[in-house]
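[job 4417] fold queue: 2 targets
>>> target A
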Amino acid sequence: MKHWIDVSQRIDGGTPVWPGDTPFTFSLTWTTLQSGSVNVGQVTMSTHTGTHVDAPFHFNDMGARTIELDLDLYIGLARVIFLPQVNCISPDVLDAFDLSGAARLLIRTGAWTDIRVFPHAIPSVDPLLAPFLAEKGIVLLGVDLPSVDALDNKELPAHHALANHGIQILEGLVLQDVLPGLYDLIALPLPLADGDGSPVRAVLRPRSI
């Protein structure tokens, strides 16, 4: 039996967030001593904590909120590819790969070497990758990085290009022990009515077709 592989970041007080964003905290509002029966916890966190999806509203005031995202895009066949030592994820780089057969593409770069520390720089996604992937039927792009754009880029060209081509974004995956190949993916966002994104519990299960 093939087991599910957790490719999500652990969420605790040490989970790195975008500089200046809300850090994760957990506290008990009730303890069993106080309530007589249960512990009840409270969390404070950014919607972009750890492994998460970006809703289009994150970078477009008119974009879809988290609850409006099509859940079918976050469940199904996914292909994992490995792109080590890449500075820009462009069509030229991906042209050597067979991307047929899976509508979800997860890219392992290995560039975020310590996921407990926010990186200083990351590979970026070339905006031209969006039409390239759309032509191949890709509807979801996942990366082992905190963003698909360069960390200092305020215009977010890759975010906008992917959204304009109907490609959803999954960021902060933990893929260092995942081999290239085909997998079943589940990475469901929370039903946040006004959300600009959501943490997910992303899991993979190896498969072949």
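>>> target B
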Amino acid sequence: MIIKDIEFKLKDGRSALIRSPKDEDIQGMLDYLRISAGETDFILRYPEECSKYTIDGEKVLFDRINESDNEAMLVCLVEGKVAGNCHIIWSNAIKTRHRASVAIALLSEFWNQGIGTRLFQELIHIAENNSNIIQIELEFVEGNSRARALYEKMGFRITGVRPNAIRLKDGTLLNEYSMIREIKR
């Protein structure tokens, strides 16, 4: 699914652009995936696991998502750099098409600039414009208080916990929490 370009100002006054991914974003996205994976333990990959992502693979991914009728990816660019992205997907199956799943991540240099809030506003807008979707779902890792605060601000509530879902390299086990946001119609 292609979304219309959205321009907005960051809290520090810089201009940002949210749009569907384009081929010209591929290298920036590959860099973003690797860098963001090393900035926090709350992303579900380590930097070395990003070597599986390739230029050809990203092109196939972008094309598939942009042509899809049940998912969208939004990329946020600041001064031409991929600052973050988010993704929404829902099933076309009758029993589960009422549920959409979302994910989001930002490079740390762009935290506290309003990007996460703006990306979530767009994800919610996409869900609200689909009459089948009545709830949006996501997960976050124990200790990620910044993400939890954003999700709660956007109307999500915790609905469950998956104990010991994440195991860090040092053996630390972390819980994963499920959240939902109901779409009011």
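[job 4417] complete. Note on B: The first helix runs from residue 26 to 39.
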